[in-house]
Design brief:
Helix content: over 70%
Number of strands: 0
Structural class: mainly alpha
Distance between the termini: 33 Å
Mean pLDDT: 86
Strand content: under 5%
Shape: globular
Low-confidence stretches: none
Oligomer: single chain
Length: 440
């Protein structure tokens, strides 16, 4: 493991990225496919179920935010200590992961179980949709321990340069989900017809399968209780920017859903379908963000600033180049993409306009999302968090509300305008970081 992590400071950056990124991309591709398949089968079961998935999506993002954000904090701390050749300290940080994530899971399970009916009623007036939101939401939240554990153990492995095992785990989990979806939703081969509850059950079973695969190599023995408090502070100092960034997605998507609900349930559905497709086309960007964190943290610990700059530059170049595929698809075939999930004429009509306008944001979005990851990896938690807050709190929902007052078609301009402004802010903060680094 130590030998694997040492490549972060010695090998050519492009070689490291091309070595690390393909397994991550493949795993995320399968994950995106299972999200699409999940919505495909639910959409075939009922249109109300598809709306329910769109409403519950922010809650799922909130769980992922805390699970992955904590994992990123552990990953960043471990990579930092590995860069300083303090392997025992790195394992100590990893050992805190399992108890910490189980505590988070328990809090989420209890809170979401009791909060879910109120949340559903805030999002829609349809009794049928409310019922399905509560049913699906309670299952995916109460039984989410697989999601939490897999996220932590995966980040521990990635800190050591092991991308293969997480890839296998995520593929196995996604394939399990894909296979179980139609069986449990429609009650095939003698299984009970569970409807949307079947989709939720398939999701949590897939998460548990993935967790079991990474457990063998990702689990670390718990250290002495005396180190928990100081180490948890270190973990969240590095992880809070990611948690804020992911949590902000939850609140801004919830906010946008509330704005769109003033138009129609179909408008809410369109936003949910966009995020399903977004997960698929953003795979290269997500993979680059995952890969650059340990590289940046490792090299910044040894003050190899040139390698940090090179890592960021290559990640942006690769991200923009690959994101052009998404731009072309959203501009040229939005109708076909929407028809995969829904045959509702109003959903298709709204979605065609929305997809084409949102696609304009894909290129500036690469930089607006990568700059916070860069600052997080080099220990500039406040700067990373500030960019996230600018994008999600001060721009997304306020702009969405303002544009919606003009009309639904104008609402979608929120996406490109937000990411252009965030990119400018990120670039200015990056230049300031480089000047400060040179002077110190």
């Amino acid at each position: 493991m130590k030998q694997d992590s040492q490549m972060f400071g010695t090998e050519k950056i492009s070689k490291i990225l091309w070595k690390m990124a393909p397994p991550v991309m493949l795993a995320q591709l399968i994950q995106a496919l299972y999200n699409i398949v999940d919505s495909f089968f639910v959409g075939r079961y009922s249109e109300s179920g598809l709306t329910a998935l769109s409403i519950i999506y922010p809650i799922q993002l909130l769980m992922i935010a805390f699970a992955v954000g904590t994992g990123v904090g552990i990953n960043t701390c471990m990579a930092h200590y590995l860069g300083l050749s303090e392997d025992e300290k790195a394992d100590e940080i990893g050992g805190i992961g399992t108890p910490l994530t189980l505590f988070m899971w328990a809090v989420f399970a209890v809170f979401c179980y009791f909060f879910m009916p109120a949340y559903a009623k805030m999002s829609t007036d349809s009794a049928e949709v409310i019922k399905e939101v509560v049913m699906y939401g309670r299952i995916v939240c109460v039984f989410s321990f697989g999601l939490f554990l897999e996220s932590i153990w995966t980040k521990i492995l990635q800190a050591n340069g092991n991308m293969k095992t997480p890839m296998i785990a995520q593929i196995a989990g996604a394939v399990t989900n894909i296979i179980l979806d139609p069986l449990l939703i429609f009650g095939m081969f003698g299984l009970p017809k569970m409807g949307i509850a079947g989709a939720a059950t398939a999701t949590v079973v897939g998460q548990i399968v993935a967790a079991l695969i990474v457990m063998r190599r990702g689990f670390r023995k718990s250290p002495a209780l005396s180190v928990y408090l100081p180490d948890i502070r270190k973990i969240y100092k590095m992880g809070i920017p990611n948690i804020l960034m992911q949590s902000a997605y939850t609140f801004y998507i919830f906010g946008l859903n509330m704005v769109l609900a003033t138009f129609s349930d179909q408008a809410v559905t369109v936003l949910g379908l966009y995020y399903k497709w977004q997960a698929f086309f953003f795979i290269p960007l997500g993979a680059m963000q995952t890969c650059i964190v340990p590289i940046l943290s490792y090299n910044y610990a040894t003050m190899k600033i040139a390698r940090c700059k090179k890592t960021l530059s290559l990640a942006l170049i690769y991200g923009v180049s690959l994101m052009m595929i998404g731009v072309l698809c959203f501009e040229l075939i939005p109708g076909q993409m929407l028809h995969v999930f829904s045959h509702d004429a109003e959903v298709i009509r709204i979605g065609k306009v929305a997809f084409r306008i949102i696609a304009v944001s894909f290129i500036p979005l690469v930089t607006s999302l990568t700059f916070p990851v860069f600052f997080q990896a080099v220990g500039k938690a406040f700067t990373s968090s500030m960019l996230t807050v600018i994008r999600t709190v001060f721009l997304f929902v306020p702009l969405g509300y303002a544009f919606s007052r003009i009309g639904l078609n104008f609402f979608w301009l929120t996406f490109p305008v937000t990411d252009i402004i965030t990119t400018i802010a990120g670039f200015l903060l990056y230049r300031r970081f480089l000047r400060f680094t040179k002077s110190s």
